[in-house]
Request: fold
Amino acid sequence: MKPASHHVTRCRRCGAPIVWCLTSANGKRQPVNAAPDETGNVAVMQGADGLLYVRTVTAARPEIRPGEWQAMPHHATCPAPPPRRSNGGQRAAAGTVRPGPWQR
Ligand SMILES: [Zn+2]
Reply:
């Protein structure tokens, strides 16, 4: 199985093809790489309502069931993940940071 083409969109940050899924655990939206990936740790399926649902593949439920495909969460491979709250923290570690006049 693989996602239907109308589900596939692109990551706003890196442009990779992804599909938006709802987590079966709590219904939150989660981006998953569009290409099936047998090294991924989630399984995606299309529900009867036409939406995609994602669940974590666990040791207790490792099997991929009919209608599901194995995939990789996009967070795991996105080269441009959302910035952390501590904006510029990595730059601060690289050198001297002086407070700019624009900071209050
Ligand atoms: Zn991305």
